[in-house]
Amino acid sequence: MKVFFNELFDYNFHCNKKIIEACIAMETVPDITQELFSHILNAHHIWNARILGKPYEFEVWQKHPVTTWGDIHYENQRSSFEITMNADAFDKRIDYENTEGRLFTNTLRDMLFHIINHSTNHRGQIALDFRKNNLEPIVLDYAFYRR
Known about the structure:
- This protein is mainly α.
- The chain has helices spanning 2-25, 31-52, 66-86, 108-132, 142-146; strands at residues 93-97, 103-107.
- Strands 1-2 form a two-stranded antiparallel sheet.
- A hairpin with a 5-residue loop joins β1 and β2 (103-107).
- α1 runs antiparallel to α3 and α2 packs antiparallel against α4 (108-132).
- The longest helix is centred in the last third of the chain and has 25 residues, at 108-132.
């Protein structure tokens, strides 16, 4: 399971890095792309914090300057690798409070998978926003990544 999640987080890191590089190279990043990518970073940070039982520093929809995306992304990745490498049981149940203060419990496996799936979902929305703004979407398919 550790290898599986490390591979998924490598892929997630690769995809997000491609988006960061593309946006840094742009003269103007579309607003929706900025909002969605900041949200990807914030959610990843929040889920890592929940897993680790730590307070989180970002709000769900807090917008970050493009110039800070790389640092936030790197820290999210480092934290997720630390979580997977130190995990002794991926079926361990973790209690946490959502952003509205409601209590929930999920397995570590489900929480880690959610981080990956959530990011993939919003990267799809970013691809649509690129098209809407006459920009060529970045090819981020897993099959292309593995080739």
